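Hi P.,

Sorry for the delay on this. The queue was packed all week, but I finally got your sequence through. Input first:
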Amino acid sequence: MAAKRKKTLTHHNPRAVAPPTVVYSLGVEVPAGARLLVTSGQIGCRKDGTIPKDMASQVECALKNILALVKAAKMKPKNLVKVTVFLRHIEDAKTFRRVRDRILGTHAPAETMIAVAGLGIPGMLVEIEAIAAAV
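Then the structure:
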């Protein structure tokens, strides 16, 4: 009889690699057969189309947009397995992390942060892509 495959998301932070310095995982294993949600880049735009001018508000809007997509896919924030963050100014990383920690708490998806020369809309300070998986 074949062994049952584990049907949970597994976070990997092996001792052979330097540990994360903030809340994220170095890797998240998604088992075969999981449902996946891959988002397009979410910007800090409110439902009414307005764009806040400050970084904290844009991060909050972008993360709330991602969580709305996750909910629409009948998943929960804990199903986030990877986020890629594009920052217009790397100096905003601390603001991003503060808002991210307030909204996602201790949940630790894999994360990549990149500073970019510009984003698709003038005035945008952050764009976030996400992958979620449900088992």
